[in-house]
Structure formats: C-alpha cells, structure tokens
Amino acid sequence: MASSTPVLCIQSVEASKDHAYDISSIKSFVESNGLSTIPSNYHSLIDPLDREVADELGAFIPVIDFSFLTSDDPQFHGKGVQELGRACEEWGLFMVKNHGIQESLIEDVMKMSYKFHDMPVEEKSEFADKGVSTPIRCGTSFSPKVESVHYWRDYLKVMTHPEFNFPHKPAGYKELAFEYSRKTRAVVRKLLEGIAESLGLQPNAIIESTGFDSGLQIFAVNLYPPCPQPDLALGMPPHSDHGLLTLLTQNGIGGLQVNHKGKWVNVNPLPHTLIVNTGDQLEVVSNGRYRSVLHRAMLNNKDTRISLVTVNGPAFEKVIGPAPELLEKEEPFFRSMNYKEYFEIQQKTSFADKSGMNQIRINAQN
C-alpha cells in the first residue's frame, strides 16, 4: 500500500490491546476480519434517543413532478413552482419524478461505482485524499486525521465541474460519470429556476448571482458495508451540504434519514425518483427562508449500500449573500462570503448543528 494513503489506526475491540489495524478502507477491513463487534471509536450512536425515528412522517416527504417545471402551460408550471417552494420551506428535501435521466444510465453508473470501490486498496492509492481541494480523492470515514469518532463508509469524491476530473479506472467509468454529471446539473439548473420563482425572483436570478453555470459540482460515491452493530455506528453523522442543491440516488438499500422538525425520518424513495436536498448556500441566498437540511446515513448488518451524490454549488470565486431583491423588504440574516472560503471552512469544521453556518450568521436566532 502506498505510503501516501491516509489510514485510520484503530484498536479492534476483538483484538488484544496492543494490536492495532491500519484502515484505509472500511470495506476491506470488514471483509478481511469477519467482525461480530466493531471498534469502540466507531461508536457514534451512544444515546438511545439518537436512534429514535418518526417512521409515520416518511409518507409526507414531498414529491415534485419535474415535468410541471418544464411545462409551457402556465397553470402546470405555476403549480410546480408552488409545490417546489413549499417543499424547500417545509422539508428541505424532496423526491423528483419525471426528471428525464435514463434509468439505464443510473444503473450503469452504480455498477461502475461498485467496481471502483471493489478494486484493491493498492490500485486506488493513487487517488488517496490529499485535502479538500484535491480534484480526485478517495478515502474512508470523513476526516480520519482529526476525528475522535470514525464513520462506517468509504468514499470517492471528484470535482466534475467547471472542469471535469475523474479516475481513469475502471474502464468506461469516466465516460458514464461525465454523462451523469452533465444531466444532473441540467436538472439542478431547472430546479433553481423554479426555486427563484417561488421566492418571487426572476427565474435566472439564483443562477446568475451564484455563477452556477461555472459553479462547483462534486460527484461523490459513498459505500457503506454491512456493519455488525448498526445500532452503534453511523455511515455519516448529521450534517448539511455546502452547496445549493444536492441530488442523490442509491442502490435500493435504505439508510438516508432527514431531520424534520427535530425528528429523524427514514427517506424511502419512490421508484425512478431522485432525492434532492437543500444546501447551505441556498439558505444564504434565500436569506434563511429555505434552510439547509440536516441528514445522516444509517447502517444495516446485511447489505452494502451505495449512494451516488452530486453536490451542486456556486462558482468558487463568487461572493454569496442573500438575494438583493429579498433585502428590499427584510434585514439580512447572513453576511456575504466567498464560496471557496465557505467550502473550506465547512469541510474542516464539525458537522454537528451546521457549524459552518455559524461563521456567517448575523442573527444567532436565525
């Protein structure tokens, strides 16, 4: 294994106290050790209250018909805009149907994503995570060098816009990812037009003010292996995303939970839908009206879960603040900040309670 590959040096609870494991992939660690318990520094669900779920609320997660937003019929379009605004305001997460991305493309990208994670650690070492600004980075947990508690996931994160980067293996993955990234950006662009309209702005207001057409897109593949004690660990802790909108699809294995009015809710997507959640930069642009949503990844002890995620944000060099049109009638809740600066702060700070947003809040009660 290349010496540049970041590792987690942890003590297995099943091993003797002087036996530590170097972990550069939780998938490889699980497959090679046959655990029945997990290392103690993966215990992140200590409080039983953290495990409580309001299952009955899952049925109320909004579903947006994308064809309404693209319709030339004013009545259908208006209905789509109204429902989109309500979903952003009340949930910060919704499903999108009739989005136009072929199911075969999603399935092919999913298969290639598993092939990437299934490669030996040595083969992936050239993509080892060297910092948040690295165009292609592969690793485990979230930030193992500074964490006291680790997370049960391996990841690939790639900056796919404004410049397209991608691993050169496995063969054919790069081409599929390019097409998928391009099509998800098109969906996000139309959603941002609808969101702008729902705020009483011109359709292109958010796109132009954030430099979206030259904005950052990160393509991420998260792999969560079966966990022998899923009631003790998390795949990802509660967090919000740094961009404007995040699109997610998964391999049919549940695990995503969203925090709705202080309660955790399982997200069980309908067939052929994309999951979309609001990010920190949308909260800023909307001056707090559409808040970024806290979500987390739960685990199971039987199946491997894979999620394909595209985080779509402003242009790195853009200074982002509340939309000027909104400030004609209300005070700003956020100070403006360069998006690259915010991105680096958010990636390096604690996930808990959207702590990155504390750097730019003007009103602590917002």
From TrEMBL:
PROSITE patterns attached to this UniProt entry: FE2OG_OXY
Membrane-spanning parts: none
Annotated InterPro entries: DIOX_N, IPNS-like_FE2OG_OXY, IPNS-like_sf, Oxoglu/Fe-dep_dioxygenase_dom, Plant_2OG-oxidoreductases
Chain coiled-coil ranges: none
Family: Belongs to the iron/ascorbate-dependent oxidoreductase family.
Job description of the protein: Involved in the regulation of shoot development and salicylic acid (SA) homeostasis.
Protein name: Protein DMR6-LIKE OXYGENASE 2-like
Species of provenance: Quillaja saponaria
